[in-house]
Amino acid sequence: MKNLFEIIYEDNTIYYGNLQTDLWSESLYKKIKCVLYRLPSGDSLILSGYQKYYHMIEVVKDLSGEQKGILNFEYSYIIGKKLDIINIYKINLKTGLIEFKQTTENDKFIKGLNLNYWR
């Protein structure tokens, strides 16, 4: 399976993740230099310079359609935090379109995230 993202740490070691083995929660607790995120188009979204990073994949399960029980990977979120500013990149995994939102820790979406997954 093709890598969905790469985490490059300050010591230049690299962690690879994809849709099947997205173990962001098991990625190392080392200082991140940058996160390189591969888009469906073949281009990359690169985040660097943040104090903390967060990754999440939104999955939809077909409950009654033609693909009953099948999981569909819909969106991926890659989030960077620097000081009080949080940048959210919501990536459509089918089209590659990216929605961007800048917010703070007081945002309802941010408050709902599992704090243990910030790196």
Distance separating the two termini: 24 Å
- Strand proportion, as a percent range, falls in over 45%
Radius of gyration: 15 Å
Low-confidence runs of at least 5 consecutive residues: none
Number of strands: 8
When the domains are counted, the total is 1
Please state the average pLDDT score: 85
Structural category is mainly beta
Helix content: under 10%
Strand order, main sheet: write it out.
2-1-3-4
Question: What's the helix count?
Answer: 1
Describe this structure in words.
This protein has 119 residues and is mainly beta. It has one helix and eight strands. It has one domain (5-108). The strands form two sheets. A four-stranded antiparallel β-sheet has the order 2-1-3-4, with no helix packed on it. A hairpin with a 2-residue loop joins strand 6 and strand 7 (85-92). The protein is globular. The mean pLDDT is 85.
